[in-house]
Each structure stands twice: as C-alpha cells, then as structure tokens.
Amino acid sequence: MDREGLSEFLRRRRETLRPGDVGLIDGPRRRTRGLRREEVAQLAGMSTDYYARLEQRRGPQPSEQMAAALARALRLTLDERDHLFRLVGHNAPARFLRSEHVDPALMRVLDRLDDTPALVLSDLADTLVQNPLAIALLGDQTRHTGLARSAYYRWFTDPAERTHYPEEDHPRQSRIQAAALRAALTDDRSDPRAAQIVAELRERSPEFVRVWDRHEVAKRFEDHKTLVHPELGRIDVDCQVLFTDNRAQTLLVMTTRPGTASHGKLQLLSVIGHQQFTTDPPPTRPTST
Fold first, then answer.
1. How big is the chain by its Cα radius of gyration, in Å?
2. Confidence class of residue 278 from pLDDT cuts 50, 70 and 90?
3. Quick one: CA dihedral 256, 262, 264, 267, positive or negative?
4. Of the candidates 1, 195, 155, the residue with the CA atom closest to the CA atom of residue 144
5. Is the whole model's pTM more than 0.85, yes or no?
6. Which three-class secondary structure state does DSSP give residue 255?
7. Minimal CA–CA distance to 124: which of 195, 215, 68, 208?
8. Long-range pairs for 75-78 at CB < 8 Å and ≥24 separation?
C-alpha cells in the first residue's frame, strides 16, 4: 500500500469535483475547494474518520470492496480506478465486458436525475446503482448477492421479484427476461456467470426451461410498462434508456405522463420517500479491513 501516493491521489481527485458533479447541492457559503471529506465518505459508504485517515496517510488498507466504492464515489475513469487499486495494494479488476465500475458518463447523468426513478444496470440485469426515487419505487435492488444479483435469475426463482409487475404481465415478462439473458450469454462468452445463471435456472425452474427453449434473443427495453408499488398500487411509466458504447451497462430512466394518476403517485413517492413504504433491509455498507 502506497500511503503517500494514495493520500495525494485521493485529495487531488476530491478537489477536482464539485458538489453538482455528484448530485449534491453547492451552497453559497462553501469554502472547501472541491468536495468535503465527509461528502466523499458519504458517497463511498464509509465513516468520515476512516476516509480522513486515508488522506492523512495513517488509515488501514482498504478492502477491494472499499476501493471500488471510493472509485465510484470519486467518479474515476477505468484508468484512474486501476491506479487507485494499485496504490491501495490490490490487483486492479480485470477489464471484462462486464464491470462493477459504473460508467462515469452514466453516473453524471444519474446524479442529475432527482425527480424521476433511474438506475444503472449491467447486461445481466445486475442493478449497479439506483437513485433514491428508484429505491422508493422498486426497493433496494443492490442488496442481492451471488447469482441473485441478476434480475433475470430472481425473476424465475424469487416470487418477490414478480410483485413489481401485474400478474397478467408475468408470462410476457418471462419471455422478455429469457430473451435478454440469451443476448447477454451471446455477448461475452469469456465470463462464465451468464452460463452459470442459465444452468442453475434450468435446474430450478420448469417455466424457464419452457421459455428458454423458444430460443428468443433480444435486448428489450419496453417503451411503456406498468409497475406495482406495495402501497400506491399500479404506476404506469415510460422508459428511456442510455447505453454505454459496448452496451455492457444501461441507464434506465422511468417517467410518468403529467396529469395522470401515475404522475401524482410518483410525485407523492418523491415527497415521502421510501422510508415509510418499503420493508427492505437497509443497504449493506462496505467495511474496511
């Protein structure tokens, strides 16, 4: 671990960011150049004291999970992320098509979306990051682990996943999920995870076997869908998507049409937030090692 290099790198990167770059409010009395230490700590899900010690060259070595959280908080490019990992003393993650590192361009757009649900997904339907309104609408989808991180996997194995959609939409959604999973399997055969998901689902879900054997393949993002909130009921949303160049990650934005009942429900959700509605456990925060 290069404590001096890490300290300098963190401080310089922190100073280059403005609050608006990460979705925070830039107040008129702000004296700090760039972000404050506590703001970076909050974005990374760590204590302010722990982050401060890293900049002061006296903190313990961050885990790989913590290093990834810091890279995301500081909106690092892949080159900068790899440099951070080397400073911390870990091998940088391999640059496969699929990456846990959220594309900085998608993050910049997501940071500015505070009045509509938005989330970044991998091509395996792993939710990499959600804004607060998306959590209020769908629950915390980043809390899942293992194969269950993929919404494709959860759709066929976890009944709770289906509660987000009206029951009459379930057969069509099953075909959509299977077709998108097949597209992901085709895109990157060097990553065994897609094949593991398929193999496990063939063992566990007769329904998956039936739709998988249709051999449909498509990256489908519906322009319009109906979601079901546990307290507010049905909410009709229009979907817009923004892909990375390699289509490995997608920013999904959901909007409602002004003047509709769904628009009113989403406005109510944005005011009240998810605290009073959802029963999901709180997100797991990275811990230092």
1. 20
2. very low
3. negative
4. 155
5. no
6. strand
7. 195
8. 75/17, 75/21, 75/22, 75/104, 75/107, 75/108, 76/13, 76/101, 76/104, 77/104
